[in-house]
Amino acid sequence: MRKDARRFENWESNYAAKLGLGSAIDYALNIGLDEIEAEVTRLADMLRARLGQIAGVGLHDIGKRKCGIVTFAVAGVDATRIESGLRESGIHVSVSSPVSTLIDATRRQLPDLVRAGVHYYNREAEIDALVRCVKAMSEQGA
């Protein structure tokens, strides 16, 4: 037995994970990376536009080129309440606390934010459902 840390090395390899990664790469390349990017951008832009039409909803994404992650807050409604309300409707989001981006959050005085991420497999009907739920919670919390 070796006397250094190499004695703890695992001699096996996770072949299932490697095969899964290869399949995921093939799948994405078959769809087309440019097509995936275009659809994610389209859906995220749509979500931002629709959330931006709701009174009391503040969008907090910055930068010239935005990704599929949409961060927002609802005035008068705690982000964890939004998260749980959406979860009850089968919509999964997360809450991003200012401590996860301390410098930026402090500089911009950000509250806890709801973090919704779209992907190419999402449908407009799913965005509509998320927006309806946020609007209802916004109206209840106002």
Question: TL;DR?
Answer:
The chain is an alpha+beta fold.
What are the key terms here?
5 helices; 4 strands; Aspartate Aminotransferase, domain 1; alpha+beta; four-stranded antiparallel β-sheet
Task: Give the SSE layout.
Blueprint: H1 15-31, H2 33-52, E1 57-59, E2 69-74, H3 79-88, E3 94-96, H4 102-108, E4 113-117, H5 124-141
Antiparallel strand pairs: 1-2, 2-4, 3-4
Helix pairs in contact: 2-5
Secondary-structure element order, as H and E?
HHEEHEHEH
Low-confidence blocks of residues: none
- CATH A-level architecture: Alpha-Beta Complex
Strands ordered across the widest β-sheet: 1-2-4-3
Largest sheet: 4 strands, antiparallel
Outline type: extended
Structure report:
With 142 residues, the chain is an alpha+beta fold. The chain has one domain: Aspartate Aminotransferase, domain 1 (Alpha-Beta Complex). Helices cover 51% and strands 12% of the residues. The protein contains five helices and four strands, in the order ααββαβαβα. It has a four-stranded antiparallel sheet, covered by helices on one side. Helix 2 runs parallel beside helix 5. The longest helix is centred in the N-terminal third of the chain and has 20 residues. It is extended and about 65 Å long. The model has no long low-confidence stretch (mean pLDDT 92).
